[in-house]
Amino acid sequence: MPERILQWKEEYSIGEEEIDSQHKRLFEIAAGAFSIVSPSERAAKVKETIRRLVEYTRFHFDEEERFMKEELYPHLDTHKELHEEIIISMNAFMRRIPEMKIQELEKELAFSIQSWFIDHITQKDKQIQAWLQKSVALKDCWSGMRSMRLSMSRLMVPTKRFCWKPRR
Ligand SMILES: [Fe+2]
């Protein structure tokens, strides 16, 4: 199961090179937890992987939030809350590590990766992509209208409304 979960898929891409490469890096780090090592090293390896994962996730979320802010993404606050929930869940997981058996730890990690990263990317980060695409289309529409010299104020208002609220 971990191998399948930790496989990056093109469908996870949100079309932003930097964000996508950071998402790929999260998968790479997580995969480290399932690399083959001697039985005596397994627990230490999983713990170290989770520690690195939390550290990189914090960096990535900051970067993603900065990106959303720059792009004037309208759902930044809600998205930030989701990031915060993931960090809280990761910290809770870390605290439980000492009392967990290695098999339980690996199983739960694989399950958590699904919700922390795969579900978040495919359901929430994908919404950023959808908004960016719409926003680019709107900018094109608006500049297209302006270049047609529809500059009389009487015409501008309905034109702007047409551009910013397109039919879907
Ligand atoms: Fe995100």
What does this structure look like?
It comes from Wolinella succinogenes (strain ATCC 29543 / DSM 1740 / CCUG 13145 / JCM 31913 / LMG 7466 / NCTC 11488 / FDC 602W) (Vibrio succinogenes). Residues 17-131 form the Hemerythrin-like domain. This is Hemerythrin-like domain-containing protein. One of its GO terms (molecular function) is metal ion binding. With 168 residues, the protein is an all-alpha fold. It has a single domain, classed as Up-down Bundle (Four Helix Bundle (Hemerythrin (Met), subunit A)), CATH 1.20.120.50. 76% of the residues lie in helices and 0% in strands. It has 6 helices and no strands. It has helices spanning 2-5, 17-31, 42-70, 76-96, 102-147, 153-164. Helix 3 (42-70) packs antiparallel against helix 4 (76-96). The chain is elongated and about 70 Å long. 12% of the residues are buried. The mean pLDDT is 83. Bound molecules: fe (ii) ion.
In short, what is this structure?
Pfam families: Hemerythrin. Helix content is 76%, strand content 0%.
Average of pLDDT? 83
Strand segment count: 0
The coarse overall form would be elongated
Amount of beta strand: under 5%
What is the CATH homology-level superfamily? Hemerythrin-like
Biggest pleated sheet: none
The helix/strand order is: HHHHHH
**What's the architecture in CATH terms?**
Up-down Bundle
CATH class: Mainly Alpha
Unreliably modeled segments: none
Helical content band: over 70%
Bound small-molecule species: fe (ii) ion
Distance between the termini: 39 Å
Overall structural class, as computed from helix and strand content, comes to mainly alpha
- Domain count: 1
Q: What is the third-level CATH name, the topology?
A: Four Helix Bundle (Hemerythrin (Met), subunit A)
Keywords: Iron, Metal-binding, Oxygen transport, Transport
Protein name: Hemerythrin-like domain-containing protein
Organism: Wolinella succinogenes (strain ATCC 29543 / DSM 1740 / CCUG 13145 / JCM 31913 / LMG 7466 / NCTC 11488 / FDC 602W)
Family: Belongs to the hemerythrin family.
